[in-house]
Amino acid sequence: xxxxxxxxxxxxxxxxxxxxxxxxxxxxxxxxxxxxxxxxxxxxxxxxxxxxxxxxxxxxxxxxxxxxxxxxxxxxxxxxxxxxxxxxxxxxxxxxxxxxxxxxxxxxxxxxxxxxxxxxxxxxxxxxxxxxxxxxxxxxxxxxxxxxxxxxxxxxxxxxxxxxxxxxxxxxxxxxxxxxxxxxxxxxxxxxxxxxxxxxxxxxxxxxxxxxxxxxxxxxxxxxxxxxxxxxxxxxxxxxxxxxxxxxxxxxxxxxxxxxxxxxxxxxxxxxxxxxxxxxxxxxxxxxxxxxxxxxxxxxxxxxxxxxxxxxxxxxxxxxxxxxxxxxxxxxxxxxxxxxxxxxxxxxxxxxxxxxxxxxxxxxxxxxxxxxxxxxxxxxxxxxxxxxxxxxxxxxxxxxxxxxxxxxxxxxxxxxxxx
Length: 419
Hints:
Layout lengths: L27 H12 L15 H15 L6 H5 L28 H12 L6 H16 L4 E4 L6 E5 L6 H11 L8 E3 L10 H14 L4 E3 L7 H7 L1 H8 L3 H10 L5 E4 L3 E4 L11 H5 L12 H7 L1 E2 L5 E4 L2 E7 L1 H10 L4 E4 L8 E4 L4 E4 L13 E7 L4 E7 L21
Parallel strand pairs: 1-5, 2-3, 3-4, 6-10, 7-9, 10-12
Antiparallel strand pairs: 2-13, 5-6, 8-9, 11-12, 13-14
């Protein structure tokens, strides 16, 4: 199923901008608060399903849609001063802009390094270059299968990371400890790059830029938070609107629908964000045939891959996350591995005190790479290095590092912080 972008660069403009291409405060925060107050959206589980929404909110949204369709009349002032119009970011970058620049349409290591340094300052990336990164990564991800096979040559290695959740400074610490992504030092990031942490845009642009620079240097799997529903609830959408603008929200949602769902390393290690399935007999070929170009459904194989968790009891049981979700036992894991001639399942999706947990008689490892999750869990982070040919997991743990004084969920709707 072809997934065409419905956005052009003209859709990702803003009426008020500075010479660096960043949004100026326009007082819209008050309107956003009023809108939030009138919505009264409630959620019944982690997925953020809506129970009620006030009629007033719907009317306001409908009115806004109607208003946007009406062309604005040209004023004498705008005709006399063309420069007063919002710029087209395909061509316009102010001379005073001192941040990272993509030269000759090519994303280089020098560009990525400078971008990461700018993010640390902190300084935003010009929207023109953010747009280029997102368009390039969409094209790359769209061409990949739903299940990606990774080959690690003899004597080489790959590093698997779990949830990062917008903790950009901890991501930089991973690179400090283990080296930057490259063809000689490849990474697999296993979903949940964004949400909750308040530096999600910095995380996702960094990972996307490395993938654009060298597709075999970094692999990206989809997590349950790479969805529009979760992004609305847990902060990424608000962060994008604040740091870029609302036009990028839909574009990121389209890109997330292109992410692969699982990876297999050297035909032996199965890597997935959530876990295994609500039914037995699932083969790797079934995963390859999943149509992933959509928002995550509420049931089926794709749903299970993104949301399920392991349990200590055999069989399958209810999940603490919600009534439609489930957990799977050691017997389920071993049957899946045997049916598909695999040795190990690596998954993420859950914070662990040590940053990892080994379960199911050593056949399943959970890895979580966001230390001191949400600035309050006190957990360590971890990543796993696999070296060919034996692929014996080497687990490295690390502590959280300091970050600017911006609290987690800073960009989330205030009502969503209660659930």
